[in-house]
Amino acid sequence: MDLTVHPGEIVVLLGPNGAGKSTLCQVAAGQLPPTRGRVTAAGRDVTSLGAPHRSRAGIVLAPETRGIFPTLTIEENLTLHLPDPASRAAVYTRFPALAARRTVPAASLSGGEQQLLSLAPLLQRPPDVLIADEPSLGLAPRVADEVFRLLAELRDAGTGLLLVEEKAAEVLGLADTVAYLAQGRVAWSGPRAEVRVDRLTEAYLGLATEEPDHPSMEARHP
């Protein structure tokens, strides 16, 4: 597959279960080596770099399972990302529900609160690229809307986002670019304005597959 994420752009990847969305996230984040092709960031080949090196280079994965330490408190989780007290105070101002429970273990939070705890530190230190795998999974609509607003703020800060979602209707309003994944291939990609219902149907039924000439993924950032 061939896919590019630009700075300040949200690329929404849609497709049915088993299409390869989570696998693509793991390859992009360095958790899974590609069998062929390459991953580049800002023109640099990072295919051989594992997840820790890519994270230090500004490519961050927000996994489907939430990126928190459940036995640590909210304050301790935030401190791992934001040693500066002023940065943590800014998070608490932005998310007062977290501030009110800063001393409780993260495991006691609702799924939505855990997702906000996972993503909130990124607003203070925006990554160059964020790969978000099903960030609204299992969330109530109100909380999902809050997560989507947070992702839009990151885009406005210049982060390039690869956003994997199955809730097509809810997430299309956030997208700059949409890509349909079917049977491990990018069947179509283009601006949100060019999205057609028949393409969406094809992608979710796994009917449309087009093999690109040069399989690669590029995450471009300054």
Automatic annotation (TrEMBL):
Mention any Pfam family matching this sequence.
ABC_tran
Which Gene Ontology BP annotations are present?
L-amino acid transport
Alphabetic keyword roster: Amino-acid transport, ATP-binding, Nucleotide-binding, Transport
Is Metal-binding a UniProt keyword of this protein?
Answer: no
The family classification in the record reads: Belongs to the ABC transporter superfamily.
Q: What is this protein called?
A: Putative Autoinducer 2 import ATP-binding protein LsrA
UniProt superkingdom: Bacteria
**Species whose genome carries this gene:** Streptomyces aurantiacus JA 4570
Cite the Gene3D superfamilies for this sequence: P-loop containing nucleotide triphosphate hydrolases
| ABC transporter domain span | 1-208
